[in-house]
Structures are given as structure tokens and as C-alpha cells.
Write a structure and sequence with these properties.
The protein has 512 residues and is α/β, with parallel strands linked by helices. The protein has helices at residues 2-9, 11-31, 33-57, 63-75, 79-88, 94-110, 115-124, 128-139, 155-166, 184-198, 220-226, 243-247, 298-313, 347-358, 374-385, 401-409, 411-417, 450-455, 466-481, 488-492, 496-507, and strands spanning 148-152, 172-177, 202-208, 230-234, 256-260, 264-268, 285-287, 290-294, 333-339, 362-366, 389-395, 420-424, 427-429, 432-436, 440-444, 458-464, 483-486. It has an eight-stranded mixed β-sheet, with helices on both faces. Helix 15 links the parallel strand 10 and strand 11 (389-395). Helix 3 runs antiparallel to helix 4, helix 7 runs antiparallel to helix 8 (128-139) and helix 14 (347-358) runs parallel beside helix 15. The two termini are 24 Å apart.
Length: 512
């Protein structure tokens, strides 16, 4: 039943239904052209033209995204309009917009930047100031120090430390994840959560409805609440008279956040499923990364969780109550940040742009999905043409073959510009990371695709200087040694059927 529900709610199913409806309309018009054809054709042409103008005039929408929707509208002049209005026209009901804005204002009020830290960052590396100030201004994400940091190159390393810290919880445990799946990783975590809840610890779990549709049984949130765990589901299906409520299903909570007692925070690219700790082999070795924070920077993760919690539950949390009390000696600056599709600002993508544009020697990137808009493709190619050593690592074994085809379709222009591309030979690479010039690194949840950068709620962290940057680079260097470097000759020898599939899928890349 759940598989059927997920299929019925998918964009692919809706697109297929609308395509069949379009065919039906054409057949009906062919049979009744003399009586209905002229009037209907005129009305549909006008409506489609107005919709195309609407797409074109959306100045805050990526041009490739606009092009894809205009193509759909042209190919399916009636049903394509319906498809766009439901999946492509990103508006939110006034009620949702007001609630989100109010929560963001309350969250921003507590995230105050210490100007002295910005000055210290500027003294160390002036070029990093603009990157940091952008995130302060547009993501309400201050720069922190006095925060102990640890980097984990594999999920099993992450999970071992996570369980250790979880068992030490005294006051609160907050968890927000896109996917939770029953198995060893989640079952061991759940056992501790139940134990802590029984001890009076404030345990809260938030998971995404779409992400867990296949992985958890229906009513699982109620089961957790009966066990004493305060659980909520982001974007669960419920009846509403407002179409915008259903359009919200296109926006997913893709974040990965765990905070213990407001003092210890975990994040990165990992969900809670056994493949992430390599207890289950789905696509060879599963390569994912994460990090732990202890100290003031944890407050950003806590506030990100609580803002989403308030959005889902309607609560109004006093965020000041959760500021960390402990400080640690640290050799780096830390700047965790979040991104949301409702503020009109592409924070995650712009943070990536800042790294690429300020690179002088090298920038290394890992991403499971490489679906680039024109601006990102241009930035990567320009950096390589300017003498920067640009390297991108993608999976050697894909989890979605059609997305993998789209990823590979970008290889040729990148390689011709001098970008070096590698495929992780042991298996599937799910890590989303940047590192550049031994000065700055990003680790987080945001993929390099349209859904992550424009539609999903995401969270990442920038690390300036210190051992974290070196640890990320060392891991990427080791990953490169285990990867196959793709050559232009290999790309140009792609079989014609695969090339045609790539061209077709790439047209609809913003939907993937």
C-alpha cells in the first residue's frame, strides 16, 4: 500500500497522467474539431502563453528551471500548465508564509554575530570575510570559535561517537533527519532514546514524510509518542482545502541534525539507515561523512532544529534557553547554516559559489548527484580555465541510474574546460563536501542538484582554517586514490542509446 501511495504522489505519475490527459484532449479535438477545435485551441494558446510569460517573468528563478517548465508547457499546452501550477510555481499560502516569516524573525533575533570574531577571521584570511558575511546576513548564521570539532570520513565512525554522546544525555535530545529506516543503526539509537525518555530527558524526533514513506510503517510517529518520544512528521499528508498545503509536498526536510543537551551537535550527509554505516551493502561501499561540534557553534544546529519544530507543531520556543554553556580550545572558525526554499535566497548554492570564486590553487568537491545549472557550470569551468585545480568526485556505483545518466551528461563540458572528474570505485559516494586552498571546507546535506539547492530544507557548515579543513582534504585525497579518473575519450565514446537518454533526462533535470 505504501509503495502504491508513494507512486501515486510522485511527479512521474502525475506527469504520466497529464500526458495521457493531453493525448485524450487531442483525440477529442480531432473528433470534434469543426465544433470545438477553434475555440478550444484559442483558449489553450492564450492560457499557455500567459503561463509561459509567468514562468519567464519569475526573476528569482534559475534560467534552466524556467527553460524546463516552458518546454513542458509547449509540449503539453493544457496539462503542462496544470503540472507547472502544482509542482513548479513556488508560492506558499499567506498563512504558511506568515508563520514561516515569524519563526525566522524570532530565530534571527538570537543569532547575533560577534563582530570581533569577524575581525579575527579577516586578519587570518581577508578573502574569507565576504563568504562569512554573506551567511551572516542572508542565513542568520554567525561565525563561532571556542568550539571543538571532529570529522568522520565514514558513517560507522560517526555512529560510534554518536551513540557514546547519546548515552550521556541528561536534559534533551533533538533529532531531525530526512530518512529513518528500521535496522541496526536506528534500532540501537531508538533503544537509547526510549531509555532516556523514561528518565525524563526531553526527546524529540522529526522526520520527513516523503523520505520515510518506504522506510517506516504508517503511524510510526504515534508509536514513538506512546514510547515517550515526542515525534512529529514534516509534510505528512492530511486533508486541506488549500492547494498550497499539497504543493508543500514538493518541499522536503532534507536536513540531518542531532543535538544533545544543547552542548553537542552532529550533522553531515548521513541519514539513519544501515547502508550509511555499511551494515547493509546496497551499492558497494557507502561513503558518507559527518562532523561533531561541542561548544557555542552547536547553538546554530539547535536553533535550526527548533525553528523547524515550531513550524511543524505551532510552538513558540524561547531559543535563548538552549545556548551552550561550555567552551573549548579550538584552532578553527565554524559557521553552521541552514537553507530554506521559502525565503527566495539560494543560500546553499551561493555558499558553494563563494568557495569556487575565491579559490586560488584548488577546489575539491564530492557530490552524489551532479545536476548543474548554467551558473554553476560556468563557475566551475571558469575556475578551471583560470588555472585552479578543480576536481569533482561522483559515485562509481549509482543509487539511481537515470540521475547518474544526467550526472555523466555534464562530464564533457567540464572536462573540456580542464575540470578533473573522478568516480568513486568502491561504491556509492553520498558525501556533499567542498575544500579549497587548505583554508576553507564545507560539509553538509546539500547536493549539487536542483532539488537540494532550490526546493529542499538543508543544513551545512563552513570550517575556516584548522584541523577540520585538513581532515576534509586528507579524506578527499584518499578518496581520489580510490577513484577512477574519467577521461574525455571515455565520455565521447558513450553509446548512442545512452546519449539519447542523457539528452532526454537532462531536459527534465530540475524535476530529479
Amino acid at each position: 500500500m505504501k509503495r502504491l501511495l508513494r507512486f501515486l504522489l510522485s511527479r512521474s505519475f502525475l506527469l504520466a497522467v497529464l500526458a495521457l490527459l493531453q493525448i485524450g484532449v487531442f483525440i477529442a479535438l480531432a473528433l470534434n474539431f469543426a465544433r470545438l477545435g477553434t475555440v478550444f485551441y484559442t483558449v489553450v494558446t492564450i492560457v499557455s502563453a500567459l503561463c509561459a510569460v509567468l514562468v519567464f517573468e519569475k526573476t528569482n528563478t534559475n534560467p534552466a528551471y524556467k527553460m524546463m517548465w516552458m518546454l513542458i508547457i509547449l509540449l503539453m499546452p493544457m496539462t503542462g500548465v496544470l503540472f507547472y501550477l502544482f509542482w513548479g510555481y513556488h508560492t506558499f499560502s499567506p498563512r504558511i508564509a506568515r508563520r514561516f516569516s515569524a519563526i525566522e524573525r524570532r530565530g534571527s533575533a538570537v543569532m547575533v554575530q560577534d563582530d570581533a570574531l569577524l575581525e579575527r577571521l579577516t586578519e587570518w584570511e581577508p578573502s574569507m570575510r565576504r563568504t562569512a558575511e554573506y551567511l551572516v546576513r542572508k542565513a542568520s548564521a554567525p561565525v563561532f570559535t571556542d568550539t571543538a570539532c571532529a570529522y568522520y570520513p565514514f558513517g560507522q565512525d560517526f555512529f560510534q561517537q554518536f551513540l557514546t554522546e547519546l548515552q550521556r544525555a541528561q536534559k534533551s535530545i533533538f533529532m531531525e533527519f530526512f530518512i529513518i529506516k528500521e535496522g541496526e543503526m536506528w534500532d540501537r539509537t531508538l533503544a537509547v532514546l526510549k531509555e532516556k525518555a523514561a528518565q525524563g530527558v526531553d526527546v524529540r524526533v522529526l522526520y520527513d514524510f516523503a523520505g520515510c514513506l518506504f522506510t517506516l510503517p504508517s503511524g510510526y510517529d504515534e508509536e514513538l509518542r506512546r514510547a515517550g518520544i515526542n515525534c512529529r512528521v514534516f509534510n505528512d499528508i492530511h486533508f486541506s482545502w488549500h492547494i498550497s498545503e499539497y504543493k508543500m509536498l514538493n518541499h522536503r526536510d532534507h536536513r540531518k541534525i542531532a543535538v544533545i543537551d544543547g552542548e553537542v551537535g552532529f550533522s553531515g550527509g548521513m541519514n539513519f539507515a544501515d547502508e550509511y554505516i555499511n551494515r547493509k551493502r546496497r551499492f558497494g561501499v557507502w561513503k558518507d561523512t559527518g562532523y561533531m561540534l561541542k561548544g557555542p557553534a552547536v547553538f546554530q544546529l539547535t536553533t535550526s532544529f527548533l525553528k523547524m519544530w515550531d513550524f511543524v507543531t505551532g510552538d513558540e520556543t524561547d531559543y535563548h534557553l538552549y545556548f551552550p554553556r561550555t567552551r573549548f580550545a579550538s584552532d578553527c572558525f565554524v559557521q553552521p547554516y541552514g537553507d530554506a526554499p521559502m525565503d527566495g535566497e539560494s543560500v546553499a548554492e551561493n555558499a558553494y559559489f563563494n568557495i569556487i570564486e575565491r579559490a586560488r590553487e584548488y577546489v575539491y568537491i564530492t557530490t552524489p548527484y551532479l545536476i548543474l545549472d548554467h551558473e554553476m557550470l560556468t563557475a566551475l569551468c571558469l575556475a578551471a580555465k583560470s588555472g585552479v585545480d578543480v576536481r569533482i568526485i561522483t559515485p562509481g556505483i549509482p543509487d539511481k541510474w537515470y540521475v547518474y545518466y544526467v550526472t555523466q551528461s555534464y562530464y564533457a563540458p567540464l572536462l573540456r574546460a580542464g575540470v578533473r572528474i573522478y568516480e568513486y570505485t568502491p561504491g556509492f559516494l553520498h558525501a556533499k563536501m567542498y575544500v579549497s586552498d587548505d583554508k576553507v571546507a564545507i560539509v553538509g546535506s546539500a547536493n549539487m542538484d536542483y532539488r537540494s539547492l532550490y526546493l529542499h530544507f538543508e543544513n551545512c557548515a563552513v570550517f575556516y582554517a584548522g584541523h577540520m579543513v585538513h581532515d576534509v582534504k586528507a579524506d578527499m585525497t584518499e578518496t581520489l586514490r580510490q577513484s577512477h579518473e574519467v577521461t574525455l575519450d571515455e565520455v565521447e565514446r558513450v553509446p548512442v542509446p545512452k546519449m539519447l537518454c542523457q539528452l532526454l533526462f537532462r531536459l527534465f533535470a530540475p524535476l530529479m
